[in-house]
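Issue: ligand-bound run for zinc ion - logging full I/O for the record.

Environment: standard queue, default settings, no custom constraints.

Inputs:
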Amino acid sequence: MHLSRRNFVASALAAPVLVRFASLPALAKSDMPSGQVTPIYRTKAGDAVVTAVSDGYLELDVSLLSNISPEDAAALLHQAFRGKPPVTTGVNAFVVQMADRTALIDTGAAGAFPETGRLVDRLTAAGISPETVDDVLLTHLHPDHVGGLAANGQPNFPNAIVHVHRKERDYWTSEENKAAAPDGAKGMFDLASAAMTAYGDRVKPFDGPGEVVPGIAARELFGHTPGHCGYQIGEGEDGLLVWGDIVHVAPIQFPRPDVGISFDSEPEKAIATRKALLDEVARNRTRIAGMHIAFPSLGHVVEGTGDQAYDFVPSAWQYDLG
Ligand SMILES: [Zn+2]
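Outputs:
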């Protein structure tokens, strides 16, 4: 209903609302809520309905960041009203429902980190059973993206085809690369390989940018990992670019895109890719979603003010998908 001054007065008179606050029972401390009701958020992108689902969150120590002192990092967090380090960063996944298929972009961390692994429960709460997922599109094969793909060697999405850039699949399933990696990183190779093995020949690596499934096109955004991709759904201002891990710590890397993170495979390339993409999406007014931006992570990048390179404008709550 469009409210004008005139009909607002009329409707207010027609339906007076009486609120008796005094009659509300007091909550015992043990009954106080400790978290959100299921974190799910829907939007449209082109003809698709995109559902953002939170898998949980990570607490990141600012010592993981490069090209910035802990003091400067703490100052940026303070400036953005984000408290003191460590910084909380989301782990998000996105369901894309189209007329002929349901796709899932990334699969969360499956409990590899303490406050993660909620994806399947929350998909189910959203009315999306894992059996109905036709395609899983992976931005890259780090544990917080591929962790929820399989459990104990069995696919969590038993009817899905898995799509991943060939460079990414080849990198993380290579025994030579695992042997050359530091001990602390070898587990990432094992986890990625196990997830790929669980799906066998239903893993369909793709080459180059372009349409991966009808309606979703891959963007090569290499640097964070060798085959890291984003996925574009729809076009223009109605579209959405799910950009994977272009940003890990929003209150720091939007103002300072030269700040990297220790998980970057190729740090300089990751920074160059981030800078180029931020410039592009700000110029083109492209709506973006990120795996590590505060839930539901949808919004626009704009040029920053002063010495801040960019800023992020979260999308307004969408009451109706229209
Ligand atoms: Zn990640």
